[in-house]
Amino acid sequence: MSFAELLDHVGGMGRFQIIYTILLAIPVFMMASHNLLQNFTAAISAHHCHVHINISNTPYTNLTGKLAAKDLLRVSVPMDSKQQPEKCHRFVTMQWQLLDSNATVTNLTELETEPCADGWVYDKSIFTSTIITEWDLVCDSRQLKQMAQSIYMAGILAGGIIFGGLSDRFGRRSLLIWCYLQMAVTGTCTAFSPSFTAYCIFRFLTGMAFSGIVLNGVSLSVEWTPTRTRAVVGTMYGYCYTIGQFILAGVAYAIPNWRWLQLVVSLPYFICFIYSWWFAESARWLVLAGRPDEAVKQLKRVARINRKKEEGNKLNIEVLRSNMQKEIASTKSSYTFIDLVRTPVVRRISFCLCFVWFSTSFAYYGLAMDLQNFGVNIFLIQMVFGAVDFPAKFISVLTISFIGRRFTQALTLILAGLSILANIFVPQDLKTLRTVLAVFGKGCLAASFNCVYLYTSELYPTVIRQTGMGLSNTMARLGSITAPLVKMLEEYVPFLPLIIYGAAPIISGIAATFLPETLSVPLPETIEEVETRHLRGEEQQMKILLKPTMPDPAKEAS
Predict the structure, then answer these.
(1) What stretches pass through the bilayer (predicted)?
(2) Which of 70, 116, 232, 532 has the least C-beta neighbours within 10 A?
(3) d(C-alpha 367, C-alpha 435), whole Å
């Protein structure tokens, strides 16, 4: 028996696995709340310069008794091209002549202005408080908003590197418990941040915890569930994240204060931390870590919960070792990142997948973190962005299963890029069309994510599969870090970010066409198997291409 068969022997997908899967899924509902949180905690409200003036001795005091707020604003702050108050400048001196409807001002642009020296006034009709309004991250400081999101994504990258290595050394369960606690504590500390610097530090640590929860949660789920149910469980986790986007929109609508919103999405992780002590460590990891006695103990516990106590009592260290000889032998073979580029076929796979993972994450967060740019209700578009994942993932599953992985991967990326580029030519006034194109693009990128996870695991052989997934995860995180930074380029060329967001998935979609197809192909075990399989495939293609051009002996004889 293999370990998978041993797992079936103690209950398969029994009560223990169902409870385990549900408990691991609960935190996933709040994952989107942290990933996309800055759409609401860092929302930019309408603003203009703060005006301080004593009008008691002005000529208009005797006429009106009290100058109306809109009139005070008119003489203090210039108007932009849309007849809205300028966001970053005010008049050096009060322009009282603008109150006189009979007076004519030849050129408003010649009136001397200055930066907002006394702060800003913000529209608080939608959000009563955000990090933008609290720390004045506007005008010269407006790029700090994108920097904060990149710092959070950098935390996710660092967490993947640090916690991924630590989990192989100290176990999945211990690291998962720690990451739940870290997420709860640092998320709560973020809500009480006294400064923007402290906010960024806590967000970085939250990102690290996020990555640790994903990596160790997935590992425990995969290592405790039977092979036949892993696809269903994985799909369920994906939809839990999608539902989390609806939850985020509802909670953000109900809580317009960023500190309370941050607190509400962080406190549930204290509950996760408490119940996670019930979790069982991965028996597979315990055996490979040289602790088979503990593995037997955990398997007997699982058998008891699954009402397979008799089967559990038959287990011992010798039975466990004999059933896991293949897994134990595989740990003695050492493979490194060099093996991802050492041979030609695996090297091509690695390079193409780097493009696919980077651009999918890059364009995804370029769209998902820019909801205010579409000019519609931010809560509604958050729900629409979440809802599109349902049909997108469903359609991608059909094309993956019946047409192929390569076709699905290339098509979704190219369509996403084209929809993003199309928005460059749509006027800002056509908000509905711009939103439809963005939602379609986001759906394509969600389908691309759905495909690339499966595709990557099938392309890499078993001996370097985890190493390849680690490289892919790193490239995805680099894409999510870069996306907010590219957004800053709109200060110089307004449509430049859209060009970059759109071009990247198109290029990677073309790169995806150079990947081998894996539909109905057994998983490769070794690097040599991947190389041999590719050479065999090329030979078959050459035969097909050369067959029409070869002379037919029968026809020549006649």
Answers:
(1) 12-32, 150-168, 201-224, 236-255, 261-280, 349-368, 374-395, 407-426, 432-455, 495-515
(2) 70
(3) 11
Instruction: Supply the pLDDT for residue 64.
Output: 43
Over residues 226-235, mean pLDDT: 73
CB of 498 closer than 8 Å to CB of 435: no
Specify the number of domains making up the chain.
2
Are residues 382 and 440 both part of a single domain? yes
Same domain, 200 and 265: yes
Q: What is the CATH number of the domain that holds 277?
A: 1.20.1250.20
Q: Quick: pLDDT tens for 103-114.
A: 555 556 567 777
Question: Residue 426 gets which letter from DSSP?
Answer: S
Structural domain ending residue among the three candidates 333, 355, 383: 333
In this structure, the number of other CB atoms found within 10 A of the CB of residue 234 comes to: 16
Residue 91 lies in a domain: no
439 in the same domain as 385 = yes
Helix (H, G, I), strand (E, B) or coil at 121: strand
Plot region of 171 (φ>0 → left; ψ -120 to 50 → alpha; else → beta): left
Q: Are residues 359 and 305 in the same domain?
A: no
For 363-415, the pLDDT digits (tens) are 998 888 878 777 778 888 888 888 998 899 888 888 888 888 899 999 999 99
Amino acid at site 39: N
Cα separation values, 231 from 45, 222, 390, 494, Å: 43, 10, 16, 42
Q: Do the Cβ atoms of 264 and 251 come closer than 8 Å?
A: yes
The residue range of the domain holding 396 is 339-544
Indicate whether 347 belongs to any domain: yes
Instruction: Supply 278's token pair.
Output: 């019930």
**Spatial separation of the C-alpha atoms in residues 118 and 49, rounded to whole Å:** 7
Q: Amino acid identity, residue 172? A: R
- Residue 200 and residue 300 in one domain: yes
Cα diameter, the chain:
116
| Distance, CA of 514 to chain centre | 25
Q: Are 154 and 104 in contact (CB under 8 A)?
A: no
Instruction: Give the number of other CB atoms < 10 A from CB of residue 538.
Output: 11
Alpha carbon dihedral 226, 231, 237, 239, in 10-degree steps, equals -150
